[in-house]
Amino acid sequence: MKRIIYILIAVFAFSIGVVSTVYYRLKSEPMSPFNCSWSERVSGKAGYDIYNTKSSFGEKVDFYHEFTSPETTRYLFQSNSEGDELIEKGSKLNEKGQKIGERGIDVFPNGIARIYWTDGNEFWFVQADSLKLARKVESQCFSR
To answer: What is this structure's pTM?
Structure first.
């Protein structure tokens, strides 16, 4: 009888380990590939677009695109670059390695990450529940 109890305890512990490992991997690994067609879109008549969607694991992803003027683009980039959340700031490059604008990354205390950049006179940002997801969405949906 003791042997059966020990075997049941071992099987139970093993099962908990397997389930927690699978859950952690699914939770920490963003979907692949990301669906770049956005279901919820708000187009502003004043020169902006807002997109809201979720990853296949239910993580929230937001996009913002502003195209009103060079002054607005500079203001939005600068205002995003001034906070304590800034972890990276540099040039936005195209696939050929040519500079097309500026790029920055903010990570907020709650883990939400925002990657933002200028492309000519346009301002873009991707905001996601994690930096890993934001980077994945940027590379899959916004690389040229």
So the answer is: 0.71
